[in-house]
Design brief:
It comes from Pontibacillus chungwhensis BH030062. This is Diguanylate cyclase. Residues 24-275 form the EAL domain. The chain is 54% helix and 19% strand. The chain is built from 12 helices and 9 strands. It has helices at 2-36, 74-84, 87-107, 121-124, 129-140, 153-156, 161-173, 189-194, 204-208, 210-226, 239-247, 264-275; strands at residues 40-49, 55-66, 70-72, 114-118, 147-152, 176-182, 199-202, 230-233, 252-253. It is globular and about 50 Å long. The structure holds ligand C2E and magnesium ion (3 copies). Ligand C2E binds next to β2, α2 and β6.
Length: 276
């Protein structure tokens, strides 16, 4: 009986490995196909200056429009793309497309805004990242000061010489760098004050559970300003949250209260409204 039991366990183990392996392989093939066949799309979520109420930027958010499954959320496929290394090709596409779209908006006569692009850890750690960014800006004709790269705390908070070099390279190039989901990762204040970072993005968990996290949100806002950084609140869903942020002098907001991420043509309509 014992022997039988173990054998079954082993079989189960083996079949679950091959199943996972197969789905990773399938996923990789599907992701490659998606890239080749243009199944990826960027949606853009507006970011507003809280005082003036004007759109000052948009965050580019990746969407996979799968022919059979419909829209697949980045939370599902980004980790896999990261695991397979395909994130590098996908990330290049995202950055190119976001810069191209932002330049197009400027060419159409809208007030210049900043486009934010999320970087994955693998992308950020490429030794030629700065050259890649420079080349994309060059190809699309977008000015560096109209691009912002979002990294997470864990990518930046390390003493390694090459990370400092990358951040300084990006600063010298003239692009902005922000820290995404700030407050949820592992971070060190020592690095925060030393690194050339322009903006903190307060994670939505602190905004949405505002009452419990009031002191934290206030501290992040005040700390950003002391460090000469801007600060934006993510995941703003209610007027009450916005009023609080306004009173605390948070610079910018992003969230469903104003707008969810939208296809680019919907942004045109929003830009038009504020031009009048
Ligand atoms: P993120 O960079 O923190 O992006 C913000 C996420 O919060 C987006 O989810 C957005 O739709 C959502 N959000 C915005 N406002 C609200 C709100 O008021 N309430 C709530 N509940 N949610 C809100 P999304 O688009 O599903 O993206 C999830 C994550 O996937 C992103 O988090 C980012 O880490 C990653 N991601 C998205 N696009 C890319 C990309 O092009 N490259 C990389 N490397 N990662 C990406
Ligand atoms: Mg982000
Ligand atoms: Mg975030
Ligand atoms: Mg995130």
């Amino acid at each position: 009986v014992i022997k039988e039991h173990y054998r079954n366990d082993y079989k189960m183990f083996e079949s679950s490995i091959s199943k996972d392996f197969k789905s990773i392989l399938t996923m990789e093939t599907e992701l490659r196909k998606a890239l080749k066949e243009g199944q990826f799309e960027l949606h853009y979520q507006p970011q507003k200056n809280i005082v003036t109420g004007r759109i000052v930027g948009v965050e580019a958010l990746l969407r996979w429009n799968h022919p059979k499954e419909g829209f697949i959320s980045p939370g599902t496929f980004i980790p896999l793309a990261e695991k397979t290394g395909l994130i590098l090709e996908i990330g290049d596409w995202v950055m190119y497309e976001a810069c191209r779209q932002n330049k197009q908006w400027q060419d159409e006569g809208y007030d210049p805004i900043i486009v934010g692009v999320n970087l994955s850890a693998k992308q950020f750690h490429q030794s030629d990242l700065v050259e890649r960014v420079a080349s994309i800006l060059n190809k699309t004709g977008l000015q560096p000061s109209h691009l912002e790269l979002e990294i997470t705390e864990s990518m930046a908070m390390s003493n390694e010489e090459d990370i400092i070099q990358t951040l300084e390279g990006l600063r010298d190039l003239g692009v902005y760098v922000s820290i995404d989901d700030f407050g949820t990762g592992y971070s060190s204040l020592k690095y925060l004050s030393r690194f050339p970072v322009n903006k903190l993005k307060i994670d939505k968990v602190f905004i949405q559970n505002r009452k419990q996290n009031e002191a934290i949100v206030k501290s992040i806002i005040h700390m950003s300003h002391s460090l000469d950084m801007k600060v934006i609140a993510e995941g703003v869903e209610t007027e009450e949250q916005l009023t609080f942020l306004k009173n605390e002098r948070c610079d910018e907001m992003q969230g469903f209260f104003y707008s969810k991420p939208l296809p680019p043509k919907h942004l045109n309509e929003m830009f038009q409204k504020q031009t009048v």
